[in-house]
Amino acid sequence: MKNPMVQAASLLEKLMFLVNVRPLSPGSREEPPPAPGYYDTSCFKRGDLLEVPRTLFIHFGIYLGENRVAHMMPDILPAVTGDRRQIQQVVTNKRLILGVITKTASIRVDTVEDFAYGGSILVNHMDRLFEDQVLGSEEAARRAEKLVGATAYSLLWNNCEHFVTYCRYGAPVSFQTDKFCETVKMIIRDQRSVLASMLVGLASIVCLGLAPSTTLPTIFIPFFLWMAG
């Protein structure tokens, strides 16, 4: 029997990629990104960490200056072609999904408009979590530029958040992954609590006999624990 933690992580990792898929209008093709100049880049500095909150998760990038952002995107194309012009085109949903499935990606440089795709942008919002670990802005930008190109990808273990935290703070970390894993562990613990309460209830019935004080808790406690989980 497979480890429930592994099963849950595998299933949810396959579902999590939907956060990066841009929704399409019924019967329409993929919508173009906002026109250049949509964002005021004058407040961005080279080496800044940019965050774009989405429905459930956050997309991250490192600002390189001159309206350019380095960020990691799942993408199948770098694994099948070396044509840089083709790879540099905006990643379509099909390319993104195949990249997630095959665990391939590219660290690419796009305009702020292509990176954010209409979402609001937070600047250096994670600095408060790392205190004195923030590297120099130029060092962060150089790290990002050095990593540009094809790379392995995992929604849980090597995603866009790992990329930017390595560049700006010196260590690849993903708080989204940590939160996800804690949620999976909590679900598993809840399931174990249901089983444990059932076993304790059955033991009390065997030792003390059938009675409302033993039978009702044996039925209702596991039920409410299961419902809460």
Which CATH top level class of the largest domain fits?
A: Alpha Beta
- Tally of distinct domains: 2
The CATH topology name of the largest domain reads endopeptidase fold (from Nostoc punctiforme)
Structural class: alpha+beta
Keywords: Acyltransferase, Cytoplasm, Endoplasmic reticulum, Endosome, Lipid metabolism, Membrane, Sensory transduction, Transferase, Transmembrane, Transmembrane helix, Vision
GO molecular function, one term: phosphatidylcholine-retinol O-acyltransferase activity
InterPro entries: LRAT, LRAT_dom
Main location: cytoplasm
Describe this structure in words.
This protein is an alpha+beta fold and 229 residues long. It folds into two domains: 37-174, Alpha-Beta Complex (endopeptidase fold (from Nostoc punctiforme)), CATH 3.90.1720; 190-228. The protein is 49% helix and 15% strand. It has ten helices and six strands. The chain has helices spanning 4-16, 77-80, 84-88, 93-102, 112-116, 127-130, 137-147, 160-169, 175-208, 212-228; strands at residues 49-53, 58-65, 68-74, 104-111, 122-123, 149-152. A six-stranded antiparallel β-sheet has the order 5-1-2-3-4-6. Strand 2 (58-65) and strand 3 form a beta hairpin. Helix 1 (4-16) runs antiparallel to helix 9 (175-208) and helix 7 (137-147) packs across helix 8 (160-169). The longest helix is centred in the C-terminal third of the chain and has 34 residues, at 175-208. The radius of gyration is 23 Å and the shape is globular. Mean pLDDT is 76; it is low at 14-28 and 218-229.
